[in-house]
Specification:
CATH class: Alpha Beta
Number of domains: 1
Bound molecules: guanosine-5'-diphosphate, magnesium ion
CATH superfamily: Spore Coat Polysaccharide Biosynthesis Protein SpsA, Chain A
Strand content: 15-25%
Low-confidence stretches: 7-21
Number of strands: 10
Helix content: 25-40%
Strand order of the largest sheet: 1-9-6-8-5-2-3-4
Distance between the termini: 33 Å
Number of helices: 7
Largest sheet: 8 strands, mixed
Order of helices and strands: EEHEHEHEHEEHEHEEH
Radius of gyration: 17 Å
CATH architecture: Alpha-Beta Complex
Structural class: alpha/beta
Oligomer: single chain
Mean pLDDT: 91
Length: 261
């Protein structure tokens, strides 16, 4: 697996190297978080894949924001007590959805990815194994064999945001907009994010993890684009939304510099 150890050795109390308890991650409970808004085409196959791929003990927590397409009902029809769906009727947003998932989770290992099936579940077991050496493993489009198959403009936008985070915050992570991470629960003792907005949460979390000296590994993955029959991107519904989101990402980077969490 192509990898890039992008960060520092850690002085944090909960650093992987300082805590031999993680030398055998087998048997540790995994909380797999998914956030959904109108994902009826992809959610059930994805959950089936997760259940088949990740060892028990496992919980899959889906935070759905009252999707009008019936995503939550579909998840409820899955007959498996490892799967839990939380339907929010008075809140929207990706950052707050993951925060809610974290609050509800009980695992020693927390993991999340998009619910559109464009990220490889099959990489997660190896990423979990790497937690014996690292606090967190980020699926990255921009290291090793990592690839981003989406439109060039979206790839460039992600690279620009990462570049800005590197210049303004001094981040070393090469894909600070990936949204695909596996981490030890103890990371939350050192780093958090403000639960607002869309993908800004990821930038803030990674920046804080780096700042607090957590050990992060980036590992390359192929980020494919959605097929036509796999629903639609929530970040690229119009140019206006795309530009507004980009501006909010940039503002979050500035806020992290001026008012770090
Ligand atoms: N709960 C929740 N999930 C959301 C919301 N917006 C997007 N998502 C989910 O966030 C993930 C990323 O969205 P996606 O459309 O794949 O964005 P893209 O990868 O940037 O094109 C998907 O699993 C979406 O269903 C929201 O407002 N609430
Ligand atoms: Mg996606």
């Amino acid at each position: 697996m192509p990898e890039n150890n992008n960060t520092n050795t850690s002085n944090a109390d909960n650093a992987a190297t300082a805590d031999g308890a993680f030398s055998n991650p087998a048997g540790r409970k995994v909380s797999f978080l998914l956030a959904t808004y109108n994902e009826k085409e992809t959610i059930c196959p994805l959950i089936s894949k997760i259940l088949a791929t990740i060892n028990n003990p496992l919980e899959v927590i889906v935070v759905d924001d009252n999707s009008p397409d019936g995503t939550a009902e579909l998840i409820r029809s899955i007959n498996d007590n490892r799967v839990k769906v939380i339907r929010r009727t008075k809140m929207r947003g990706l950052g707050s959805a993951y925060m809610r998932g974290i609050i509800e989770s009980t695992g020693d290992i927390i993991c999340w990815m998009d619910a559109d099936g464009c990220m490889p579940v099959e990489m997660v077991p190896e990423m979990i194994n790497k937690l014996s050496e690292y606090d967190a493993v980020i699926g990255s489009r921009f290291v090793g064999e990592g690839t981003d198959e989406r439109d060039a403009v979206r790839v460039i936008a992600s690279k620009l945001i990462t570049g800005m985070a590197r210049v303004v915050l001094g981040c070393k992570t090469k894909d600070i907009d990936s949204g695909f991470m596996v981490m030890r629960r103890s990371c939350l003792d050192a780093a958090l994010f403000s639960p607002t907005g869309y993908g800004e949460y990821f930038i803030e979390l990674v920046a804080n993890m780096e700042k607090r000296g957590l050990k992060i590994l980036e590992t390359g993955f192929l980020f494919r684009d959605r097929d036509e029959d796999e629903g639609e991107s929530k970040s690229f519904q119009s140019w206006l939304r795309f530009l507004a989101l980009g501006s909010k990402y940039a503002l979050r980077i500035l806020r992290c510099k001026i008012w770090p969490l």
